[in-house]
From TrEMBL:
Any one GO biological process: adaptive immune response
Name of the molecule in the record: Ig-like domain-containing protein
Upper classification of the organism: Eukaryota, Metazoa, Chordata, Craniata, Vertebrata
A Pfam entry, by short name: V-set
PANTHER family per record: T CELL RECEPTOR ALPHA VARIABLE 16 (PTHR19367:SF18), T-CELL RECEPTOR ALPHA CHAIN V REGION (PTHR19367)
One GO CC annotation: T cell receptor complex
Originating species: Anabarilius grahami (Kanglang fish)
Highest taxon above the source species: Eukaryota
Domain Ig-like: 13-129
Sorted UniProt keywords: Adaptive immunity, Immunity, Immunoglobulin domain, Receptor, Signal, T cell receptor
Length: 135
């Protein structure tokens, strides 16, 4: 399955075209937006279908490429290098649900957040969806 996206400066990626067989695994955000005040804990959530091994979270600031935050690969958590302070992941396999938890929100956390089933920074946008965080 091939997916084409385009991204203009300071804009979110835009889906253009899909070619190939229907994906067995799909990931979708629980909601399109999340709002928090400073110092509040915030949870961004995605649900998925199929059997997956890896769940990735990324953050993207306006005008910048996506930044890897954290990964759950078959129960093993890998943080960005260096780790992003206050970021953790909760994966409930029985519910097919994954959360990104920001322990103490700050204005600097305002960005687009992506949950993905495959690495996306390397260019694979197969199942890329977004969660939007605004203050």
């Amino acid at each position: 399955m091939l997916y084409w996206y385009r991204q203009f400066p300071n804009r979110e990626p835009q889906y253009l075209l899909r070619k190939g067989f229907r994906a067995k695994e799909v990931i979708t955000p629980y909601s399109d937006a999340a709002f928090a005040t400073e110092t509040e804990s915030e949870k961004l959530s995605c649900n998925y279908s199929g059997s997956v091994e890896s769940l990735h979270w990324y953050r993207q600031y306006a005008g910048s490429p996506p930044q890897f935050l954290i990964l759950d690969y078959s129960g093993y958590v890998t943080h960005a290098t260096p780790p992003v302070p206050g970021i953790s992941i909760s994966h409930r396999k029985e519910d097919k649900h994954v959360d990104l938890i920001i322990s103490s929100s700050a204005v600097s956390d305002s960005a687009l957040y992506y949950c993905a089933l495959r690495p996306t920074v390397t260019g694979n946008t197969r199942t890329l969806y977004k969660n939007l965080k605004k203050y």
